[in-house]
Design brief:
The complex is a heterodimer of chains A (285) and B (334). By secondary structure, chain A is α/β, with parallel strands linked by helices. Chain A has eight helices and ten strands. Chain A has helices spanning 51-56, 93-110, 138-145, 158-162, 185-192, 206-209, 235-258, 272-280; strands spanning 20-39, 63-71, 74-80, 114-120, 124-133, 172-177, 197-204, 216-222, 228-233, 264-267. Chain A is elongated. Chain B has two domains: 4-73 and 302-326, no CATH class; 77-299, Rossmann fold (3-Layer(aba) Sandwich). In chain B, the strands form three sheets. In chain B, strands 7-6-5-8-9-10 form a six-stranded mixed sheet, with helices on both faces. In chain B, α4 packs antiparallel against α5. The chains are: A alpha/beta (285), B alpha/beta (334).
């Protein structure tokens, strides 16, 4: 894994929690954002003495500044481990998923945020569960525990089982999958996660969209259902397939739109800079 | 009669193996993340079954071709023109004598008119010229028969054989063996035309009873006819005379006996008594008429082999399958 720049994720709300971190929190504590100016007896910290306010006070009270605690955010990654994630095209799809989780783990650690991982196929995988804690070894944990995950199952409904395990306080949740789910599944999952900030990370492969073989015959076997499909590749079919993929992305987009988010599409290799750009508000679908 | 037969029918037990392509795809497979939104492609579906069907038909045609199917050719009734004529020419000493009646004095002086064999030869050569559609073979005999010219389209050979035939006495005339040799010419030949043994002889020989039986069988086997041009000088006995008055009572002239023997053999038989060159020509003309009749014969057609068509079919399908294998996608990427 090559060294990639840190991911500057960004949320539009203040995380609660008393664990110090990089984000602007909601509880008082040591931080860089002024919360209020309080009398010294309420907040006995003479280091934060507000000289200006104290001098102006006609009652000669001594005032100190109170800050918001720079709180830790909880970054949680949900990984789909259904059989379709085993697809190897130009890139190994699950390796990309692991890459996304690893980079997020590194970035979370560097930002002082808590990091957690849950994986689920048809059922939730409770043996591969990392609750969101300030965990500096999360990256290592991922390397150890993601190498022997069996990618099986025809759907990823186990992700619904993960929801109760998530913290009740809002978190930043990444859902890493190819979202080849039944219609409506993504929408209902996003609704269940709606009190969190959810970023659906959609994994795609160029060989699914525009880097297919131009012509020839082959049999495609669905990794999930095992159904075979005889394919005679030709330009008209290729156009149809590209249309289908566009339609799929649109359907994921519309599902995300309902809960006020949009998917981050990874086409091929994962680049952290693109994810940062995503958080900066640029579109790159 | 035209039913399909197999040379090696036991190979047909392999036919169930044709269904193997229906079990295995044979085309390279790729794991794909999801086919639920794959475009409905009727052409691909049809092609898939077409490929399997082609593989099945290829295997089936190979196995069927290996089993070597054929139909019996059956038989066909054909009408043949011309005849196969084997000239059995006597070249015994007596044939060197004069054909026509001659003054005995002059004869004693050794002044010869046209000899029997020379007259026969010329007439026979004319016969050959007149009948271009016929096939000729020549056997000459005196004490033993010589197969001079086999029954073939090579007429020059037969002509040369006739031309070279000269009377030469060796004391004995092996008539029955000459006839057998002439009949042997027909051996292993398909019966396509009238078969005629044209015996040109002046007789004066005997055929024993045991040889008679053999000859009778041979004539029957080969479906041959016999014509005897009895070349004799006017003062010789006619074949019609029954009793040889110069000999003991009840004795028959050998030629009369021979004629009766031929009559008793059972095949179509005609005898021509000839004692002049003109007579000889008349006889030959008569022979021409007799053998000019179209011959109806049953022709056995060769068996029809169908394996080659199956092999061609298999090769064509193999070509298509090889092409399909060639355009098969090796790696699922651009």
């Amino acid at each position: 894994m090559s060294q990639q720049p840190i991911i500057h994720y960004h949320i539009r709300w203040r995380p609660s929690g008393h664990q110090p971190g990089a984000g602007h929190g909601v509880v008082p504590g040591s931080g860089d954002q002024l919360r209020s100016v309080v009398p010294l007896r309420d907040h006995p910290d003479p280091r934060r003495l507000d000289l200006h306010a104290s001098v102006r006070d006609p009652f000669k009270n001594i005032w100190v500044r109170d800050f918001y605690l720079n709180s830790a955010l909880k970054v949680i990654v949900l990984v789909d481990t259904s059989a379709s994630m085993s697809y190897v095209g130009k890139v190994n799809r699950f390796k990309v998923a692991k890459d996304v989780a690893s980079q997020l783990a590194l970035s979370a650690y560097r930002s002082g945020d808590a990091f957690g991982v849950y994986v689920a196929g048809e059922r939730m995988n409770k043996k591969r569960m990392l609750p969101p804690k300030a965990n500096r070894s999360a990256w290592l944990w991922l390397q150890q525990h993601f190498s022997d995950i069996k990618l099986e199952g025809q759907h990823a409904d186990g992700l619904f089982e993960v929801v109760p395990y998530l913290p009740q306080t809002p978190c930043l949740v990444f859902v890493v999958s190819d979202f080849r789910w039944q219609a409506g599944k993504l929408k209902s999952l996003l609704k269940k996660l709606s009190h969190h900030d959810v970023v659906p990370v959609m994994l795609q492969d160029p060989t699914e969209i525009n880097e297919q073989p131009k012509r020839g015959i082959a049999i495609l076997r669905d990794a999930e259902t095992g159904k075979g499909q005889f394919v005679w590749m030709r330009s008209s079919l290729q156009t149809q397939m590209a249309e289908m993929r566009t339609k799929h992305i649109k359907s994921v987009n519309s599902a995300c739109y309902v809960v006020g988010t949009r998917p981050f599409v990874v086409n091929g290799e994962f680049k952290t800079s693109l994810l940062t750009e995503y958080f900066m508000g640029k579109t790159h679908v | 009669m035209n039913a399909l037969h197999f040379f090696k029918p036991e190979l047909l037990w392999l036919l169930p193996f044709c269904l193997l392509p229906l079990i295995s795809y044979g085309v390279k497979q790729f794991s794909y993340s999801g086919l639920e939104d794959w475009p409905k492609d009727r052409v691909s579906d049809v092609l898939r079954w077409l490929v399997r069907l082609m593989a099945v038909v290829t295997l089936a045609s190979l196995i069927i071709a290996a089993a070597a199917p054929f139909t019996e050719g059956g038989t066909q009734t054909r009408t043949g023109k011309g005849a196969e004529i084997v000239i059995v020419l006597d070249r015994s000493g007596s044939m060197a004598e004069s054909l026509e009646e001659q003054d005995p004095v002059e004869r004693a002086r050794g002044k010869m008119t046209l000899s029997r064999i020379a007259a026969s030869r010329e007439v026979l050569l004319k016969l050959m010229d007149q009948r271009p559609g016929d096939t000729f073979g020549v056997v000459v005999f005196n004490a033993s028969p010589i197969a001079v010219a086999p029954l073939s389209a090579d007429r020059e050979l037969a002509r040369a054989a006739l031309k070279s035939a000269e009377g030469n006495s060796s004391g004995f005339t092996a008539l029955h063996r000459a006839l057998e040799m002439g009949l042997d010419y027909f051996k292993d030949r398909p019966y396509t035309a009238t078969r005629l043994i044209l015996l040109v002889s002046d007789g004066d020989t005997k055929i024993k009873d045991e040889d008679k039986e053999i000859l009778k069988q041979r004539f029957k086997d080969y479906q041959a006819e016999l014509m005897w041009i009895y070349v004799h000088t006017g003062y010789d006995f006619s074949l019609q005379y029954e009793e040889d008055i110069t000999k003991a009572d009840g004795a028959v002239d050998p030629n009369v006996a021979l004629n009766q023997l031929f009559l008793s053999l059972g095949m179509p038989y005609q005898a021509f008594e000839v004692n002049s060159e003109a007579g000889l020509q008349r006889a030959v003309a008569e022979i021409g008429r007799a053998t000019n009749k179209p011959t109806r014969y049953v022709y056995r057609l060769p068996r029809q082999d169908y394996a080659v068509y199956f092999y061609i079919l298999a090769m064509g399908l193999f070509g298509i399958l090889f092409w399909l294998k060639h355009i098969e996608i090796k790696v699922w990427r651009k």
